[in-house]
Backbone:
């Protein structure tokens, strides 16, 4: 991406948008000048965990409208390699809830790019939100 300075690429599901998502993107943006975020498609997410609650187009729009994000793009799978090849970032970022060998990291290093783990926000997650909704539904005797 010519004339963008240091380009950072991050990727996420962005399901049930919460403060942890915003915090991850803030940290990623601080690493460079231009932040590209790959939003994983529903099919890509279902290949490694549960189906997302929020449809892909809405998740993409949520990320696109985050102030830290310069460009939000479709990512077909959990592996960001195709988008790294396309957008040529200097830095690949993910939360430290994954290890430094996360998918795409080896390719990024092989082309001379940096791989950085940012601090995962422990106080909120989509899984925790879903669990809380289920517990609250049981307390209120709501059938899910």
Residues:
């Amino acid at each position: 991406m010519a004339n963008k300075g240091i380009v950072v690429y991050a990727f996420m599901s962005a399901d049930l948008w919460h403060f942890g998502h915003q915090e991850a993107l803030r940290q990623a943006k601080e690493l460079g000048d231009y932040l590209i975020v790959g939003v994983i498609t529903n099919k890509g997410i279902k290949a490694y965990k549960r189906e997302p609650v929020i449809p892909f187009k809405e998740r993409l729009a949520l990320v696109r409208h985050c102030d830290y994000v310069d460009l939000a793009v479709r990512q077909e799978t959990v592996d960001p390699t195709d988008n790294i090849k396309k957008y040529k970032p200097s830095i690949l970022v993910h939360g430290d809830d994954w290890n430094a060998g996360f998918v795409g990291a080896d390719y990024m290093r092989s082309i001379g790019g940096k791989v950085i783990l940012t601090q995962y926000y422990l106080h909120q997650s989509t899984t925790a939100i879903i669990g809380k909704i289920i517990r609250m539904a049981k307390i209120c005797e709501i059938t899910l």
Notes: The CA atoms of residues 7 and 18 lie 24 Å apart. The beta strands are 7-12, 34-40, 71-75, 91-95, 114-118. The chain has one domain: 7-139. The longest helix spans residues 126-139.
